[in-house]
Amino acid sequence: MTAVLRARQLGKKYRRGWALTGCALDIPAGHVTGLVGPNGAGKSTLLNLAAGMLAPTTGTIEVCGGMPGSGPAQLAKVGFVAQDTPTYAGLTVADHLRLGARLNPNWDDALAHRRIERLGLDPGQRAGKLSGGQRAQLALTLGIAKRPELLILDEPVAALDPLARREFLQDLMEAVAEHGLSVVLSSHLVADLERVCDHLVVLVAAQVQLAGEVEDLLAAHHRLSGPRRDPATLPADQQVISASHTDRQTTLVVRTEAPILDPAWTVSTVGLEDLVLAYMSRPAEAGPGRRPTLEVLR
Ligand SMILES: Nc1ncnc2c1ncn2[C@@H]1O[C@H](COP(=O)(O)OP(=O)(O)OP(=O)(O)O)[C@@H](O)[C@H]1O
After folding, report:
1. How far apart are CA 282 and CA 280, in angstroms?
2. CB 44 less than 6 A from any atom of ligand 1
3. Is residue 192 classed as helix, strand or coil in its secondary structure?
4. Which domain holds residue 281?
5. Which of 77, 186, 198, 267 could form an S-S bond across to 35 if both were Cys, CB 3.0 to 4.6 Å?
6. Radius of gyration of the chain (CA)
7. Protein residue closest via CA to atom 12 of ligand 1
8. Is 108 in the same domain as 61?
9. 253 and 178 in a common domain
10. What phi and psi values does residue 78 have, to the nearest 5 degrees?
11. Mutate which of 10, 12, 14, 46 to test ligand 1's pocket (most atoms within 8 Å of Cβ)?
12. ipTM of the complex
């Protein structure tokens, strides 16, 4: 696998504490990778480290084979649209495209103009007078037209209406298919991620809890329901991610590569949203690789 992003022991500490710790990641090139996790989990911190906007406190991060933000050639390879979709309030839409053309060696001017026209944005309008969603569309257009190898998007669709969201994600998938673009995007909208991402990273409490190809992750997790039982009594190769109980029944989300043979369980598949929720509701100290249980008494 060619990694477009590789992190080892990556950590970032702000004054009030660690926003990211012990992060080891290999994100494959040519795919769309979704980054999910609760508020404050460290997603923006990770993306800002990848874009070279922040420097690591510990460990290393490499994107497109180089150190983030380390020079003009490296900067040209990586596009970054930050969470607040920054634009210059006093500049017009057309000014932004001119600036994009001047600053980016691989700039695709035809694509930028086509997109702006399709979105119905007035080239003469100042960015400060655009709606939040229109401003996000302008920032995303700049990111795509830059024609980077890796496009990093921090909650790119949060401000877009549902139709605009769908069309934008469609544009992204086309760019991946046509130009071999790699995308890493964070979002709270798991249904959107399900549509576009083939890889997933779940970040909770400053740590990577789960990472891999969506198909493999879904195949390795199962929902078990059956008579009430202490999750600690499960075989050691069945890692309990979440557990909920009624008086008589237990429902678990379990990770295992082996088949589940115990006839007491009714086994069903887990959808992406349930998988993400199971990891998000896991206690922080559970960490990857340990055998935690979230006991929810209904
Ligand atoms: N510039 C900063 N200075 C100090 N602390 C920060 C800074 N940026 C983020 N943090 C803290 O680091 C932690 C992780 O924040 P981060 O913005 O990376 O989370 P996030 O997963 O992107 O959250 P959200 O989903 O709400 O956008 C939080 O506890 C936050 O308060």
Report:
1. 5
2. yes
3. helix
4. 216-297
5. 186
6. 21
7. 19
8. yes
9. no
10. -120, 125
11. 14
12. 0.97
In one-letter notation, the amino acid at residue 292 is P
Helix ranges (H only) for the chain are: 43-51, 72-77, 93-103, 109-119, 132-145, 162-179, 190-196, 214-220, 272-280
Which domain-ending residue is among 138, 172, 204?
204
Tokens representing residue 46 in the block: 């990770």
- Model's pTM, two decimal places? 0.90
Total domain count, the chain: 2
Distances (CA, A) of 201 to 32, 37, 99, 208: 11, 9, 33, 7
Q: Same structural domain for residues 152 and 86? A: yes
Question: Same domain for 189 and 127?
Answer: yes
Quick check: helix, strand or coil at residue 92?
Answer: strand
Residue pLDDT tens, the chain, 298 long? 789 999 999 999 999 899 999 999 999 999 999 999 999 999 999 999 999 999 999 999 999 999 998 988 899 999 999 888 788 999 999 999 999 999 999 999 999 999 999 989 999 999 999 988 898 889 989 999 999 999 999 998 888 888 888 888 888 888 888 888 999 999 999 988 998 999 999 999 999 999 999 999 999 999 999 999 999 899 989 999 999 999 999 999 999 999 898 999 999 999 999 999 999 987 655 544 433 333 333 3
Distance from the alpha carbon of residue 276 to the mean position of ligand 1, in angstroms? 20
